[in-house]
Write a structure and sequence with these properties.
110 residues; mainly alpha; elongated; transmembrane helix; transmembrane; membrane
């Protein structure tokens, strides 16, 4: 593994760890989203898919967090569904990171 790939792998680990902490507290979620957008997505390596996956997870989580404000009748139920959905995506991201493999089709919902 080249030093650039090792750095990209470490960045993805930090991003995933912050997303995981963000499931309990909102601030780390936003920090992870900022890092996913700011860090170079390591174009041409398998870590590029991890960055794209992290960006999508961030935005879907934010939209899911704000949706109950728009539709308060289903607020708590929607928050639970979005939280579980984000937890599943994070589990998938950690497994792909551990195996050092691509996250196939980061454009999918799950």
């Amino acid at each position: 593994m080249t030093p650039a790939e090792a750095l990209a792998r470490r960045r993805v680990l930090w991003m995933n760890a912050l997303f995981a902490a963000g499931l309990a507290f909102a601030l780390p979620w936003f920090a992870a989203g900022l890092l996913a957008h700011r860090w170079d997505p390591a174009r041409g390596t398998l870590w590029a898919t991890h960055h794209a996956y992290g960006v999508r997870t961030f935005w879907f989580g934010v939209i899911g967090l704000l949706a109950p404000v728009a539709v308060p009748e289903i607020g708590v139920g929607l928050l639970v569904v979005v939280w579980l959905w984000c937890a599943v995506r994070l589990g998938r991201a950690f497994l792909a990171w551990d195996r050092a493999e691509w996250i196939m089709d980061p454009g999918r919902f799950v």
